[in-house]
Amino acid sequence: MTDLGSIGLLGVLAIPLAAAALLALIPSYRISSRLNIFASGLAFLAAVLLIDQRPAPNDFLFVDDLNIVFIVLGTFVGFTTSIFSASYIRHELETGRLTPPYLRFYHAMYQFMLFGMNLALAAQNVGLMWVAVELATLTTVVMVGIYRTHEAIEAAWKYFILGSVGIALALFGTILVYLAAQPVIGEGMDAMSWIQLAARASQFDPALLNLAFVFLLLGYGTKVGLAPLHAWLPDAHAEGPTPISAVLSGLLLNVALYAVLRFKVVMAANAHAIAPGRLLVVMGLTSLIFAAFMLYRRRDIKRLFAYSSIEHMGIIAFAFGMGGPLANFAGLLHMTMHSLTKSAIFFAVGHVAQAKGTQKLQDMGGLTVTHPGLGWGLVLGVVAIAGMPPMGVFMSEFLVVSSTFARQPLLAIPLVIGILTAFGALVLRLQHVAFGEPKGENHPVSASYVPLIVHLILVLIAGVFLPGPIVAWFQNVARTLG
Description:
Elements: H1 3-23, H2 29-52, H3 65-94, H4 100-122, H5 126-144, H6 150-185, H7 194-200, H8 206-224, H9 232-239, H10 242-268, H11 276-294, H12 301-322, H13 325-356, H14 367-370, H15 372-385, H16 392-407, H17 409-435, H18 450-464, H19 468-481
Helix pairs in contact: 1-2, 1-4, 2-3, 2-4, 3-4, 3-10, 3-13, 4-5, 4-10, 5-6, 5-10, 6-8, 6-9, 7-10, 8-10, 9-12, 10-12, 10-13, 11-12, 11-17, 12-13, 13-15, 13-16, 13-18, 13-19, 15-17, 15-18, 16-17, 16-18
């Protein structure tokens, strides 16, 4: 192992785990919020070390071009969300929605959740990855219900039940993959190694692989939020603390998507197995079109953007399902842009809901007049997520559509219809909330604008110019995905 690589991998896992244990003992908001930010920032710096220095793989952990994209993106969003969380949670304490014991629990679970996500992304063993995904899911479940209201507890239970069904299906699919690998690789850790599975998948029983991938796609697809497996997502967004909404859209959905992509690589290596891309294309288009029309019926601002997440995860799944260098590149870029943009939107939405004392769209209006900073931040976020130039989401959607037109013109028709339908819904809602007649309450809120501004600047830069090293990096990963 290289020294910096070892330090980076150790830091990505050990820092959030140690911080979680320490935060569980600290009752002070001022200290715990700053420690949460400090630990998240250190984990991000540790992830950056892995870009140039990769530790040698072992039976449990490894780092390659694919998972480092997810690790760096995830730790960055985790860091910026912790900054937003500090000001958001302070307001929740002042208004009595959270008490000091729950605050301690919240910060500890935040770091424990980041540990679970990082472990899932860095796992070399498919069984360890499954355990880590379940760990991250359970921590977000308890955080969704942290307000202890009837609606929050119901949302947490719904998330828990549907997530448990999904993870059970994923477990069965993982066992089937092991059974397919065992006659070729032998018993033990090697038959659960991503490196070994990808290298020798061509010799596996295709019937077992086909059955396994169906269960894996349904299981992990539940956590990706793909329709019709999405039912937990809107409730979890609406009832949980807004920092968790940012983490769900910006991190947890990507972790489940990563698991699907890893198994897609294994499937693609076997010429006699079903083409996994077709299933992803179908589920991606279904999610996109379903969510696009559902956006028109939302009356809660956090539910609105929850369905927007379903829409964009559909686009990402569609892009990876199409496959090929350009579509895979577009999928990676869109995943990155969605994580940055949607978390930025929730940074604005969280403080908007606190200022207005409600999440109902009908009780909000004229935000650019009553709260100019938050209002215009939300406007720019919606402009970005709707796919308007020159933002990065426009570039990634353009690449997805153009690659589809070049290879499957008929599939481009429902793709474009879904994107335009969602665009219309978001613009319609934006007009009322940002530019309509001022209405609703106006509570004082001390908002943190730094994470919002940083995310939107990065999305703007990506839409205008992508640095050569990032393009080469994403192109290499796109070739790996097939």
